[in-house]
Give the backbone structure.
Amino acid sequence: MAKPDYIICLECESEVDEFTWRDGEIRRAACDVCGNNDPDAFALPEDFEQDFEDDDGDEDEEEYLDDLEEDEDDEE
Ligand SMILES: [Zn+2]
């Protein structure tokens, strides 16, 4: 994976471009805004955006009751 242009601080959601990237992972990072310097508390922009889109709840309730029909042929 290529090094991203910036990462997101999960503590304050700021964009941070001062970080060490190695082997596809964030090795070191420091947020100027809140002082967070725990690499685990940063996310890639891609991951962050995906989390955001999942915020919408699915309100479509589809019924799968058809599957509940008895499907057992017990012929002894
Ligand atoms: Zn921060």
User: Anything to note?
Assistant: DSSP finds one helix and five strands in the chain.
